[in-house]
Amino acid sequence: DGRRPANPAFWWVNEEGEEVKWSFEELGFLSRKTANILTEACGLQRGDRVIAVLPRVPEWWLLNVACMRTGIVFIPGTSQLTAKDILYRLEASKAKCIITSDTLAPAVDSVVSDSQLLKSKLIVGRGNEDGWLNLQELL
After folding, report:
1. Per-residue confidence at 126, pLDDT binned at 50, 70, 90?
2. Domains along the chain?
C-alpha cells in the first residue's frame, strides 16, 4: 500500500540482543497504567518525590514518563549506590517511594527503617520481596 511502518516511540536493546519496542499507543497505555500504580498502589500525589535506583531497563523510562504524567518528581540514582548512599538520598530528598531492582532491594531494606517519610517500595524484576510491591505484577 506504499506506507512505511510506524517508527517506534521506544526501542531498547540489551547486550544479549533482546529488544523491547513500544509504539506511541503502547507507551501511552503503559505509562498511564504505571501512573495509576504510583498514585493508587503507592499512594503518591503531585509533588511527591520518588527515587529510582535502577539500571537503564525499559521500566526506567516508563516510570519517568508516568511521573511526568502525574506531577511526581522522579529522582534517578545509579545502581552502584551503596546502602549508606541510598539512605542519604532518601533523607535528603524526602522521597515517599523508592523503586529498585530485586538485586538492590536487600540493600534498601537494610537502611529503610531509618527513613521517616518512605511510604512505599516498588520492585522492578521478577523477584518478590517482603514489603515490596512488584511493578510487573501490578501492570
Report:
1. confident
2. 8-134 (3.40.50.980)
